# Entry
Amino acid sequence: QVQLQESGPGLVKPSQTLSLTCTVSGDSISSGAYYWSWIRQHPGRGLEWIGYIYYSGTAYYDPSLESRVAISLDTSKNQFSLKLTSVTAADTAVYYCARSGTRGYYNDYWGQGTLVTVSS
Amino acid sequence: DIQMTQSPSSLSASVGDRVTITCRASQSISTYLNWYQQKPGKAPKLLIYAASSLQSGVPSRFSGSGSGTDFTLTISSLQPEDFATYHCQQTYSSPQTFGRGTKVEIK
# Structure
């Protein structure tokens, strides 16, 4: 059974870098069959796509975040990571990692989500 | 970016009711439309992909239809476990975008 689990600090200071890792079990992120995504949800609001990465290392980002975001892979640990720089209170959200199909890009497996609060 | 507009934003319904939620895209997205169910404090769960394909393990009372700009999610007979928020998502073009959600509440 495919499982994803986010990990990382729950509190980040303004202007610092948010770093999260998603550990995948039950599937290989280097199989080439899926993209590996990050999605966030601001408190009480809708979902926002951040970006995804393919096994080749090619990543795609939301243009509104592209200057601050980087997604990377660690195939030896079957993990992928998110870094978001220069965070502000507007980056406070629940962050989800998810598996996305290469046809249709729908997200069929999700992590449980982790709340990241940006505050001094 | 393609804007996704869901309606209604919330609705009240009774167990056994037929419920329909609509999602409209700001431009044609063919059938690159997915539906998710989200319960409080939980991650979204994929219900329907490619506008009308039922995800494995999802009850058949859920169905999706539409193409182009107008889509619907229908729950044929609402069950107690269906009270949740439903999100649509377009994956026709990047960046993929979501609707703001429809909260289905108990009447």
User: Anything to note?
Assistant: The two ends of chain A are 39 Å apart (CA to CA). The mean pLDDT of chain A is 96. Residues 10 and 116 of chain A are 4 Å apart (CA to CA). The longest strand of chain A covers residues 93-101.
